[in-house]
Design goal:
This protein is α+β, with helices and mostly antiparallel strands. It contains 11 helices and 14 strands. Helices cover 40% and strands 20% of the residues. The protein has a 7-stranded mixed beta sheet, with helices on both faces. The chain has a 4-stranded antiparallel beta sheet with strand order 11-12-10-13. It has a 3-stranded antiparallel beta sheet with strand order 3-8-9, with helices on both faces. It has a domain at 24-222 and 403-409: Ribosomal Protein S5, domain 2 (2-Layer Sandwich), CATH 3.30.230. The relative contact order is 0.17. Bound molecules: alpha-D-galactopyranose. Alpha-D-galactopyranose (GLA) binds at residues 52, 56-57, 59-60, 192-193, 195-196, 360-361.
């Protein structure tokens, strides 16, 4: 197998796609496919996970976010079937799911476990294109599950890419991202915004994505790996609250928005209000609504500062936005925890660190630190010592790079 990725969407812009980071993983996915299903060789696909530099909890508030598709993600070996059977396997999960497409309704069933995500994508793809045939698929990934790096968006996007390629439907990247997003919200029931699926589907080598979720509109902004590295720091704290706490934050933001619409003016998104407008309605707001809205409104400013800093290669100012973002998500949005606070504080105390913050929804999982290249080993050692001294547990560290985006592996 040659490790040359080729894009499957017709809008491909010609940017080069590097080899998958883990050829052995792809071999394992293909080997399992052959062992399970036999038949002709499957086609292989990859979609990345993501980290979000700044713009925490802004996507479902119509704000601007700055994610980066990383060089880790989910691989899929897949083949179309002539009948209506769906057969789904994963290298990391015991549960194997076989079902007839006739059994797929509008919502997930709990017995499908992890497979609810790709089944939801199949459902959305079928609704969009009218294709009713089933498929066989094996997934394998090198992005840790439930850690804040968006393994769920990666599995959704890789499934959408695979279905599009297998059936020659030629949907563009935005359409694939929307099908993937719908699987997570409509089918699985997490009220997330569009960031994760768009970051995965629109990922591009050497660039981060400035996604204005209100449109959505987007552009890519260069990120210089010679000037700055991204260290992921995994607290290994499971994100138990992630689903319930996340949906609660979405509801709290909706409440804050409603109050602002009534008391200030009728804007379509919470992220559209200015700080002055928020201040003017302080009396009308309960304390929780006010803090949630303050995070959203000030995070919009931080994202704008971060983008300006990135454009002029000012990684120190970019890092300062991450620090401020972490404080705001901790104090106003209440999605941090001791582990994330300690690990980001410890990182900030190290030489060579531009800034640090939690990534993803929060409540546990991973934080990121931006570093001067060459400092990851010493930062990992010092942060690891501080974390272990406090919690008696060893966190994990990894330098993530911008990946080359999703595509078919030819
Ligand atoms: C999760 C959601 C995203 C986004 C982030 C917080 O990752 O899936 O849509 O809201 O949290 O920024």
């Amino acid at each position: 197998m040659a490790w040359l990725a080729r894009d499957v969407a017709h809008e491909f812009d010609g940017s080069s796609m590097s080899a998958p980071t883990r050829p052995a993983l792809l071999d394992a996915v293909v080997g399992r496919f052959r062992g399970e299903f036999g038949g002709a060789a499957p086609r292989c696909f990859f979609a990345p996970g993501r980290i979000n530099l700044v713009g925490a909890h802004l996507d479902y508030n119509g704000g601007d976010v700055l994610p980066m598709a990383v060089d880790r993600g989910i691989y899929a070996a897949a083949a179309a079937r002539p009948d209506g059977l769906l057969r789904l396997r994963s290298l990391d999960q015991q549960l194997a799911v076989d079902l007839d497409v006739a059994a797929v309704g509008r919502r997930m069933r709990s017995e499908w476990g992890w497979a609810a995500y790709p089944i939801g994508v199949w459902h959305g793809f079928q609704q969009r294109t009218g294709v009713t045939k089933g498929f066989d698929v094996v997934f394998g990934g090198d992005v840790p599950m439930a850690s804040g790096l968006s393994s769920s968006a990666a599995i959704e996007v890789v499934t959408a890419l695979a279905l599009d390629a297998l059936h020659g439907t030629r949907l563009d990247r935005q359409q694939l991202a929307l099908i993937a997003h719908r699987a997570e919200t409509g089918f699985v029931g997490v009220r997330c915004g569009i960031m994760d699926q768009f970051a995965s589907a629109l990922g591009r080598a050497g660039q981060v994505l400035l996604l204005r979720c209100a449109g959505p509109r987007w552009e890519h902004v260069p990120f210089d790996p010679q000037a700055c590295e991204v260290l992921v720091m995994d607290t290994k704290k499971p994100r138990h609250l992630a689903k319930s706490g996340f949906n609660e934050r979405v509801a709290q933001c909706a409440t804050a928005h409603e109050i602002l619409r009534t008391h200030v003016r009728d804007l379509p998104h919470l992220a559209s209000y200015s700080f002055a407008e928020l201040e003017s309605s302080r009396e009308a707001m309960d304390e929780v609504s006010f803090r949630r809205a303050r995070h959203v409104v000030t995070e919009m400013e931080r994202t704008a500062f971060a983008v300006a800093a990135l454009r002029r290669h000012d990684y120190a100012t970019l890092g300062a936005q991450l620090d401020a973002s972490h404080r705001s998500t901790a104090v106003d949005f209440d999605v941090s925890c001791d582990e994330l606070d300690v690990i980001t504080d410890a990182a900030r105390a190290c030489d060579g660190v531009f800034g640090a913050r939690l990534t993803g929804a929060g409540f546990g999982g991973c934080a990121i630190a931006l570093l001067r290249p060459g400092s990851s080993a010493s930062v990992g050692r010092r942060v690891g010592e501080a974390f272990t001294a406090r919690f008696g547990l060893q966190p994990a560290f990894d330098v993530l790079r911008i990946g080359s985006g999703p595509g078919e592996i030819a």
